[in-house]
Design goal:
Elements (H helix, E strand, L loop, with lengths): L6 H9 L7 E4 L3 E5 L4 E3 L2 E4 L10 E7 L4 E5 L9 E3 L11 E3 L8 E9 L7 E4 L3 E6 L3 E4 L6 E9 L4 E7 L2 E7 L11 E9 L4 E9 L2 E10 L30 H25 L1
Parallel strand pairs: 2-11
Antiparallel strand pairs: 1-4, 3-8, 5-6, 5-9, 7-8, 9-10, 9-11, 12-13, 13-16, 14-15, 14-17, 17-18
Helix pairs in contact: 1-2
């Protein structure tokens, strides 16, 4: 073999499929679940087009507490009988689970982790970003018992930032209250958001529970009082909760990917330079 004969083989080695392959786990930053209902906890394994796995991934789900964690999958004692896989197919990369009959104690941060064995590589464990599960109860919106001219809206939510309760009249916001993070010492695992307003005109009154920009649920009360006109100057639209900090989302390590791409190029340039100097 000539001194140039092995250079193409080195190039094929460093640019072969799989050298720059990616394996990532994706899960949403925030989920809202109704108390007593089931919720899907999304987790998706994503592989680059040139990657494949030798074996079925091993799935782990953790409920992260202050100084410890509970196993959501495989289920620990507190979750037995309430957790199941959404898709148990070997060829599916959907690793979401269904948490049944959500309780107040289920609120908190969750993380999806997978042990994977790609072909041509060693096994390793990869984690998704954290998902915050926020729980809410049913909404009460009706006139008060003592005074029928007062409308009262009330809903219990977990002690987290982000929930907002608003009352609207004919589409215009009248009052709103925003939840805040708990101090961790409250006797109850929830806080009560409530608003009471006077019914001064007819029309549609609507109580809304929002989680940041998303409408979670609403309740409507129709009043037959005369004077359904709304004071336009006092009317203000519902403003989403935008000043609440999001759960951190870590960006893709593009610099690392570029560095990995430059490694074979640098090696090839070094080899080419060395061969040219030997001529």
């Amino acid at each position: 073999m000539t001194k140039w004969g092995w250079t193409p083989w080195m190039f094929l080695y460093f640019t072969a499929p799989g050298v720059l392959s990616l394996v990532t786990v994706h899960q949403p930053p925030i989920l809202a679940a109704a108390l007593g209902q089931d919720v899907i906890m999304p987790c998706e394994l994503q592989l680059s087009h040139d990657e494949d796995l030798e074996y079925k991934p091993v799935l782990y789900w953790d409920h992260l507490l202050h100084n410890s964690s509970n196993k959501l999958w495989a289920p620990s004692e507190m979750y037995k009988g309430r957790v199941q896989l959404l898709d148990d197919s070997r060829v599916s990369w959907n690793k979401s689970i269904v948490l049944q009959k959500v309780q107040w104690a289920d609120s908190g941060r969750y993380q999806c982790k997978l042990s994977v064995t790609p072909k041509r590589k060693k096994s390793f464990r990869i984690k998704g970003n954290l998902t915050s599960l926020m729980v809410y109860d049913s909404m009460l919106f009706k006139p008060t018992n003592l005074n029928a001219s007062l409308l009262h809206c009330e809903v219990k939510v977990t002690q987290d930032d982000g929930f907002a309760l608003s009352i609207l009249h004919n589409g215009c916001s009248l009052h709103s209250v925003i939840s805040a993070a708990g101090d961790g010492v409250s006797a109850q695992p929830y806080v009560t958001l409530s608003e009471t307003i006077p019914v001064q005109a007819g029309g549609k009154y609507e109580c809304q529970l929002r989680l940041k920009e998303d409408l979670i649920m609403k309740s409507i009360f129709h009043s037959d009082l005369p004077g359904a006109e709304t004071n336009v100057t006092a009317c203000s639209p519902v403003i989403p909760v935008s000043d609440v900090p999001d759960v951190p989302e870590f960006p893709e390590p593009w610099l690392l990917y570029v560095a990995l791409l430059l490694v074979p190029v640098t090696v090839l340039l070094t080899l080419a330079t060395a061969l040219l100097l030997r001529r």
